UniProtKB/TrEMBL annotation:
Keywords: Aminopeptidase, Hydrolase, Protease. It comes from Streptomyces guryensis. This is Aminopeptidase P family protein. The keyword RNA-binding does not apply. GO terms for molecular function: aminopeptidase activity. The lineage of its organism: Bacteria, Bacillati, Actinomycetota, Actinomycetes, Kitasatosporales. Signal peptide: none annotated. Residues 156-358 form the Peptidase M24 domain. Pfam families: Creatinase_N, Peptidase_M24. Gene3D superfamilies: Creatinase/methionine aminopeptidase superfamily (3.90.230.10), Creatinase/prolidase N-terminal domain (3.40.350.10).
Amino acid sequence: MTGSTRAPFTADDYRDRMDRAARAAADAGLAGLLVAPGPDMVWLTGYAPTAVTERLTLLVLVQGRAPVLVVPTLEAPDAAQAAGAPALALRDWTDGKDPYAATAALLAGTGRFGISDNAWAMHLLGLQRALPGTDYASLTDALPMLRAVKDLAELELMAAAGAAADATFEEIRKVPFAGRRESDVGGDLADLLRQFGHSQVDFTIVASGPNGANPHHEVGGRVIERGDMVVLDFGGLKDGYGSDTSRTVHVGDPTDEERRVHDVVREAQEAGFRAVRPGVACQEVDRAARAVIAEAGYGEYFIHRTGHGIGVTTHEPPYMIEGERQPLVPGMCFSVEPGIYLPGRFGVRIEDIVTVTEDGGRRLNDTDREMVIVD
Ligand code: ZN
Ligand code: ZN
Ligand code: ZN
């Protein structure tokens, strides 16, 4: 949840998003959308309940009807304060009543509804009981690009989050690494992200030496040594929008092999970035980065997709992966983050958030992509 974070959007902005979402749902053959608390609800209404409980809270969007937020009575005063509240009707229900029957009455007949990926199973089961004959698709499956194209105000917030992550890197490269635990440097990263305006820290990966060969190693108790490569990958939310960047630093002088592997990843990241332009399929960004690594002989050690979308969450569609034919559209934001992972030895990953422009791509992270030497 984004908690008290408030992005600078008005009720009109949220009304427009809800209209577009309902229209997109109808165009996709859906009877409507059922949106649970979480990123979709934040993006559509600005409402983030302080506590998500077993009580049903659900935004119902059906084209041609006013949006309705089904909300527990005790939460209704908070919901009424949300920036998007003037654009929707609140329908509260009190403990002891059946919220599913009340929701069923709002849905125009039966059909197929898109429902938030993170809706609780108990709520979906309740709706299925109350509305036999309806069918459901996950919102990510049904409308994967719903939040993918950012408007100008969103792009400014994305750029500010990226700049805060870059400022974090500029500070972390000055701290001592050798002799400290990964978790100590991870703590520094979290402190810096907050100092530079993040309200939420999602991950602070400090993967030293052999731990670097595991792409999602977070932080552990390992003491960093001279001679270690250290993958740093960190991000979170600032003013409701995400940051996510990686740089791989070296403690002291690197070996020729370490330098070569780092160079290959840097060239792969550059190739992925240069592939970005409107109309190009997402998979082409992956192919461009992967080709550089494969040609250098490290293909089997690049063990994940090249990138993921980012916005009000730090991982979302579109995905830069083989098989994803979705064309890039100006305003999309995603990571370009190739890596090479040598089991038992070390790993290298370099990651920038990139946004699609009319004639190419623009990086939202711009710290040194050459190998930075730390102490
Ligand atoms: Zn080394
Ligand atoms: Zn990352
Ligand atoms: Zn990432």
